[in-house]
Amino acid sequence: MKHQRQDSLRASCALLWFHDRLKKRNAIELLAARDRQGQIHAVCGIVYDRQCGYLLFNGSNPDLTNVEANSLLVMKTIEYAAKITDAFDFEGSMLKPIERFYRGFGGEMTAYMNIWKHNSLNSFKRFALKLYKRIRYGK
Length: 139
Description:
Layout: H1 2-24, E1 28-34, E2 40-48, E3 52-60, H2 68-84, E4 87-89, H3 96-103, H4 120-137
Parallel strand pairs: 3-4
Antiparallel strand pairs: 1-2, 2-3
């Protein structure tokens, strides 16, 4: 338990350091969708320069049932980015429901490159993963 708190504290400090550096360069914006009582329903964070804004994170409060808040906030984030940069990048997702959510905003899918260092450990990991999937899922 002590190690988890230390790791959490380290991660929080690193995140604050990261945010401070980007804020000094006017390269990050954090947005939130709140109700009239001030409760946060959804959040988005983008990092940007003149060329492109990148959706760093977004999510909604699982304790609240307003599912439209996240969609509305992403739309507002895109509108905000359109005023300060030339392009917007969702950064994609390998998770189908998230990828489907992002596709709902339009845009075009761009493939990314997968960098692979060939060595015996990586080859073994790849083989083990394929074997696991074959056994577990019959693929």
